[in-house]
Amino acid sequence: MASREHLQTPFFVSCADSRTNEIIDDEEWYYPTLDEARAQFNQVRDQGNRHVYLGEIGVFAADNDELKVDYMTFDTTNNDWWRECSPLNRLNTRGFGRAWVHEAYATIYMPVADYNWRL
Fold it and tell me: Do the Cβ atoms of 95 and 111 come closer than 8 Å?
């Protein structure tokens, strides 16, 4: 779950082993801009047996209409993971993604990087 400390670097690139789907801890990067994060995503996307995820901190409404803050994945090389969560399958669309912690569904979210959120 994202926290206030993460607001300075709202964009992330994360990798998981493609055989086990386990996150590779030493292959997570956080950036202050989308351009930096996308450059890292493009650099590592075709390296070895891994899935790569690109996302950002987003604010979205939970089932009970409470606002939640989480890292939202909006681009990935793991198309099976993406298809599990979204019949709309709008991959690579900022403002629509799959929550990292609440990963059972995809949702529309408001990117924290685009707003002056006070969390």
Answer: yes
